[in-house]
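Q: What residues go here?
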């Protein structure tokens, strides 16, 4: 919502970066390969569609130990979210990126 308001206010496009720790999702979105996991088919189709329309950019692959979303889904989180909140700085190392 905020990005939409800023784009209307400044009449320009703000890129939407996406980071994932799934090598399969990264390959499917950026290279057009097919997922082997049937549960990912709908998510992958939606992600590929917005990527092809250039509605997202800067697709990046991060390692699991640097994934800030890991703290929201795992019993033993990596600590990346706590570091991000404590410092207020985004220092997530990206292993591979497609711009």
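A:
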């Amino acid at each position: 919502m905020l990005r939409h308001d800023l784009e209307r206010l400044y009449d320009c496009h703000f890129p939407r970066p996406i980071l994932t720790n799934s090598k399969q999702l990264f390959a499917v979105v950026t290279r057009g390969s097919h997922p082997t996991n049937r549960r990912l088919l709908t998510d992958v189709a939606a992600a590929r569609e917005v990527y092809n329309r250039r509605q997202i950019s800067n697709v990046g692959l991060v390692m699991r130990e640097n994934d800030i979303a890991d703290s929201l889904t795992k019993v033993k989180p990596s600590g990346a979210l706590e570091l991000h909140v404590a410092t207020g700085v985004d220092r997530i190392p990206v292993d591979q990126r497609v711009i």
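A: Context that may help when evaluating the design: Residues 19-98 form one domain. The helical segments are 2-10, 23-31, 41-52, 70-73, 80-87.
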